[in-house]
Amino acid sequence: MMEPSIEDSRMPLMEHLVELRRRLLRSFVVLILLFFVCYYFAADIYGVLVQPLADIVHDQGGSQQMIYTALYEVFFTYIKVAFFAAAFLGFPVFATEIWKFVAPGLYTHERKALLPFLVATPILFFLGGAMAYYVVFPLAWEFFLGFQVPPGADGLAIQLQAKVDQYLSLVMRLIFAFGLCFELPVVVTLLARVGMVTVQDLREKRRYAIVMAFVAAAILTPPDVISQLMLALPTILLYEISILAALFFEKKAAGAAADSESDPDGGAPKRRPGGDAPPPDETDFNA
Fold it and tell me: What is the reported pLDDT for 285?
């Protein structure tokens, strides 16, 4: 059976704009509702984010506490926490609205090709954030706390007095960096599927990708070797996974092209989309 034509879903420009406004408005309403819900639990969410630091301080026998130096600092910090949590929880809704707006303009095979990437995007971002929280945070915080000088030692004591807003900025930057880097297989595989890059190109540019991974890790993470390596090494591994995924789709596309070139009807003339057979060749009349 033939695929449904895109002409069947064609709409005037104003109807497209109205449809886009409707879906953006729906996404905005969802974001606002989730924001108020998350703000109610903002203190609990912030407690979860600060838990890795609290565990390390407790294991070291310390009694440090977080501070804020402005009257409004904690209030605006909780607003940021609520916004990030609402955006994270509402991402499936936002992606669904975008998909519903774009899908009518795609063929059936294009929808089937893009749908797995749409599903994989939030999953990979969550895995990147989980790696930052469960692996990078404990190692990095323990490294930074190692520079403290306890009381009673020679000289003045050096104790950590972490600020509330600065800790949140550091945590969100790391979660965003790891989540973004874990999207590399999705981006590279999509570029390979549309023909913008090939497996040969990815292999030839491997050395530049390694350098860019370390440069990005140096920019996005704190200035310590542990967190930089913890971001650069998975990024390089994900790049290699991207090459394997691109190779899979490249072989699949080559096989589909080979099947289309072969004539399964034994040389019978192919029909046009309208169902009419093409006019016979002159060799048919001679025969």
Answer: 41
